[in-house]
Amino acid sequence: MKPVAGSASSLQSFIAFDFGTRRIGVASGTRLMGVVEPRGSLRGGDAAFDDIARLVREWEPQGLVIGVPRHPDGAPHEMTEKALRFGRRLAGRFHLPVFEVDERYTSVEAESQGADDVDAAAATLILEQFLRETSS
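and the corresponding structure tokens:
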């Protein structure tokens, strides 16, 4: 996990994203309650930022978490850079710390669990992983 900005351990509430060019899965959660919930999917592209702005206003997170996809051996690929660019845009637009989490296999795991909305379920797994990795 690599923070784009900020320190994770002192923050309590988060919105997480499973970035995709067509859909972006969303989950929210809090460290204090230890609860993470899928919040559905948004359409990808620039229009997603209007929807994300609404979610940020509504949920008032202290930080944002993005899943960064990589090849099984850890090497970056085309979607890696797109997800990183998405994270930089989130940080610039919302002025919140953005944290990166290795999201290899989250969609596969969400599918294997029979999720109705695989993207939102993957975002949930990303946020759960982030909270585990940053707990004191």
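(Above: one complete record from the training split.) The helical segments are 48-59, 78-94, 106-112, 118-134.
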